[in-house]
Structures are given as structure tokens and as C-alpha cells.
Amino acid sequence: MQIEDCFYLGKIVKKYSFKGELLIKLDTDQPELYEDLDAVFIQLGRDFLPFFIEKSSLHKSDLLRVKFEDVETEEDADQLLKCELYLPLTALPKLEGNKFYYHEVIGFTVNDVSFGTVGTITGVNDNTSQPLFEIDRNGIEVLIPMNDEIIKKVDRDAKTIFIEAPKGLIDLYLE
Questions:
Q1: What confidence tens digit (pLDDT) does each residue in 91-128 have?
Q2: N or C: the chain end with fewer CB closer than 10 Å?
Q3: Cβ(148)–Cβ(165) under 8 Å?
Q4: 3-class SS string, 24-51
Q5: Domains and CATH numbers, the chain
Q6: Phi and psi at residue 55, in whole multiples of 5°?
């Protein structure tokens, strides 16, 4: 399994018991979707290793309490602290309408109501207070905020996102 075939699920943040149980901070708005997993991939160094789950339950809303097979002691659990967990992309729930996963829209064309074709999405910058589309327009990077007021339609079949950017925003990048 390679990282490009997976999505980040969360990180092991602390031990829960003396019997090898761990708490995972999930990176999701819907932690209940991941309560009954059979297995996850854990990144140990450069490797992705499958870990099978004996039991799991939600703990304090966004933490997942997990007991992995073959993790029986505190020492076993210590080896996994701060490790990142991944699942195959095929395990992602399907989104519809204007909802999308960031990796899903890479390569989509962005079309603005007033401006026309802006360019192609090359990435998503989520290191800011509001995520931004990173759009390539003939070698010039254009950043467009990702919010429901700007995104008008996501057409998966045409691989196009239709937006209505604030007046003058796109022109700022092209002057």
C-alpha cells in the first residue's frame, strides 16, 4: 500500500489502558463512520502496515478508542504513539452535490460566472483559516477561497467547478 492510495484518518494520541488500548484523534466531521473498522494502515517509518482491530468505540465524540490485535501491553502501545493512521481511498464515503474531497478535485477546471475559465486546480491549501483552491492559469497561480457562497456547482462528469468569485479577485493575480 502506498500513501497516494490512502487517505489520512487520524493520529494515535495516547494510551487508554494497561492492556494496549489506544486513543485515536480522528480527522473527520463524522467520527461515527469509522467506529466499526476491521483494520487500518499505520505508518511506521516509511512503511504502511495493516493493523487489525479487535474492538473499537467512540470516546468523547471525536476520539476513537481502539484495541488492536497483537498489541497487548503498555510497551506495545508505546511503539504506536504519535503514529498516523490511513485507510484506502476506496473506503471514503461517496459525496454528492457540491461536497467533495480535496484530492478528488485536483485536475478539475474552474469556471467563473463573470470571468470564464480560470484554470486547472493543482492543489488545495488548507494551512490557512479558510481552505483555498490553488489554480494554475498559464503558469500563474490563482488562489480562490473554498466556501459555499463562492462554489456554485461541482460537475464531476465534466470535471469542472463553477464559481462566482468576488469581483476583482481573479484580476488581482493577473495584473
A1: 888 888 888 888 889 999 999 999 999 999 999 998 88
A2: C
A3: no
A4: EEECCCCHHHHCCCCEEEEEECCEEEEE
A5: 3-91 (2.40.30.60), 102-174 (2.30.30.240)
A6: -155, 155
